[in-house]
Amino acid sequence: LEEETEIASWTENGGLFVGTNAERLAEYKRFAETGKYFGIESHVLSPSEVKEVHPLLRIDDIYGGVYSPGDGTIDPTSVCNAYAKASRKFGGGVYENVGVSGIEVEDYLTAGSAPGRRIKAVLTSCGKRIETPTVVNACGAWANEIAAMVGAQIPLKAMKHAMVLTEPIAGMHSGLPNVRDHDLSVYLKTQGDSMAIGGYEQNPEFWPDVDPGFAFGLFELDYDTFGQNLAGHMQRCPVIEETGIKSTVCGPESFTPDHKPLMGPHPGLRGLFHACGFNSMGLMLGGGVGRELTKWILTGSPEVDLFSFDCARFHPESVASSRWVRDRTHESYAKTYAIVFPHDEALAGRGSRKSALYDELKSRGSKEPLDYDLYGACAESGLAFWLVDQGAYEEGAWRLGEADHPDIPKHQSHEYLDLVEGELTFDWPASHATVAEECRAAREGVAIFDQSYFGKFYLSGPEADEAVQYLCGADIEGKRAGSVTYTPLCNSRGGVEADLTVTKLQDSAGSNYYYFAAGGNTATKDLAWIRKVLEDQNFKAQIEDQSEAMTLISVQGPSSRRLLQSLTHSDMSDESLPFSGAKHLEIAGHPLLVLRLTFVGELGFELHTPAESAVEVYRAVQEAGAKLSQLEGIPVRDAGYRAIDSLSAEKNLRHWHADLSNRDTPLEAGIGFTVLSKLKRTGS
Ligand SMILES: Cc1cc2nc3c(=O)[nH]c(=O)nc-3n(C[C@H](O)[C@H](O)[C@H](O)COP(=O)(O)OP(=O)(O)OC[C@H]3O[C@@H](n4cnc5c(N)ncnc54)[C@H](O)[C@@H]3O)c2cc1C
Questions:
Q1: Domains of the chain, first to last
Q2: How many angstroms does the Cα of residue 281 sit away from the middle of ligand 1?
Q3: Ligand 1, residues 98, 188, 281: which to mutate, most atoms within 8 A of Cβ?
């Protein structure tokens, strides 16, 4: 950018993290190791080495630090000027003091007769109407207002976020690195001979009444809120106690429930893209977000894996719950600098979405009731977290110091918190023994998983066969009704946008239709992707979301067939229901669809059951399992998501977004077997 515009905005003054406990230093060492992979130079430092790098810091209470000399500082004014200059150079325009006053959308029907909505035009405060199929919502703290113009919702909250610029400090100079003390939740950035100091408070200030006219303004600093940070600044850099404050910067900024931006196409509204929710990282992330969003708009997919930023990572029901968004955003803000442990669990907003089996599992005293949560996935199964709706919600809020919950006693035993804290380790978490038992049941007997959070979609229509063959990397053409196929859905570069199972079924009139089962965390994105492809290719087919209406009880393990055979007259043998086969049958008098599939590498069956019959089907499975256990000593038990993770990793089965993504082709990701026969047969 500097080369193109001759505007300098980057100062490479380095970055220094200091840690005040052993776990933090362990986290920093992990950062340093990860940095090597990305070619980022960093050095783990002893306390005295920290002092050499930044002589103004107090070091008698630290364990050490990590120093990255290539880190630095972006000057916001210069970088914005550089972007503006560069955009003009390439034919773009910058128009100041013109507001978007409205956005026109239109309804339409796809070739498959599915109803759709798309962007038509933007209305501006100067009276000009701009016809366009594409709008990018990059309005920061005002992004909700833009979304509301088209009846859309996004999980974003505006807050007042602050930092303070100190008077000049003796010994400060522009070569000293920016400092973060994550344990004190503060940063101290170099600004010539001064410091810009800020942090993340436990009690951040929301900005609920966002003022559309508040542009380029600042709020008055609330020292009651910011005071928490000042205590940390003075502890880390004692000279600050005697230093005056030159100015304060308290500005509007947008925050999200997981402290990551909102990017990409808005599900259900064609042409609306988001680039907002920067969680006080917009300067750092803006360049990359802009680059990838351009590719997303032009080609339908970014070139790097941006699922963590994709606005479709949130379930629409969570997005629609203002309380969930607020509480989780509050927690994420307060935990900005918390150590991220491998099994970190959020406290706020738990239990807002639940499986149809939730109450049943809880009443059985099970430790695995499913709490649909962030990303629509179950975050609690497999753990001894069962107090979701017995106060954990409020405890979480109390922990964050929310004024809404002043009556919650602070010094009594909080079982949920104790359980959560048992997970906060880089070592084996407290739940490890439970997960191990679940894994053993899956390998030696039967494990019963509630995977109801999966996305479940039906694709039908006169061109359903052609549409599925086009969508799927695997060869579906010629497959018999009653077959299940694990397949990637690829983008135009061959990258894997989704991996899921497709079951071919036939209705009473002999027409084929298809049942898609997709991972819960990606279900919203996968559905949007399928809808877009159907529409772009003008297929006379449509896809219907039945995720909430169906549950998925997965019965896995070497004795799973015997267990299920005892519940049905339908033949469950290998001949009648081979691997990758499907059939309709009845259990406990309830019709359901059984797929013979496994994601744990065992003999296994998925029971896709209407939600209203889920409890009775589950009870029947449990009773049959109890008999097997009593008579033959076979281990049969409920199991959860961590067991699935462990079991599937043992068998080298892939997880989308972890082991393969939109930037890997099936061949690169080691699932070439899914696409080779189609490639050989059709050449594409
Ligand atoms: C105290 C503080 C410290 C920070 N420190 C850092 C840091 O160290 N590193 C970092 O990377 N980031 C930092 N940030 C965050 C960074 O400033 C933001 O993430 C970034 O500015 C967000 O950019 P944006 O374009 O998304 O939103 P904004 O910069 O807020 O821009 C949104 C624009 O949309 C306009 N708008 C609103 N409604 C309409 C409408 N109807 N029509 C037209 N325009 C409209 C607004 O007027 C505004 O100009 C900090 C922020 C604060 C407040």
A1: 2-75+158-255 (3.30.9.10), 95-156+258-313 (3.50.50.60), 339-430 (no CATH), 432-454+549-653 (3.30.1360.120), 455-546+660-684 (3.30.70.1400)
A2: 9
A3: 281
Ligand 1 centroid to Cα of residue 253, in Å, is 6
Residue 3 C-beta-side C-alpha neighbours within 13 Å: 0
Which tens digit of pLDDT belongs to each residue from 619-665? 999 999 999 999 999 999 988 888 898 999 999 999 999 899 999 99
Of 193, 171, 173, which is closest to residue 238 (Cα–Cα)? Answer: 171
Which residue's alpha carbon is at the smallest distance from atom 5 of ligand 1?
280
Residue ranges around ligand 1 (CB below 6 Å):
99-100, 138-142, 161-163, 198, 215, 249, 251, 253, 276, 278, 280-284
ipTM of the complex: 0.99
How do residues 141-177 score in pLDDT, each as one tens digit? 999 999 999 999 999 999 999 999 999 999 999 999 9
What is the number of other CB atoms lying within 10 angstroms of the CB of residue 10?
14
From ligand 1's centre to the CA of 277, what distance in Å?
Answer: 9
The predicted structure's pLDDT at residue 594: 98
Residue whose Cα lies nearest atom 34 of ligand 1: it is 139
Q: Which atom of ligand 1 is nearest to the CA of 284?
A: 11
Burial zone of 442 (CB within 10 Å; 0-12 exposed, 13-18 middle, 19+ buried): buried
Q: Which helix (H) or strand (E) holds 449?
A: strand 446-450
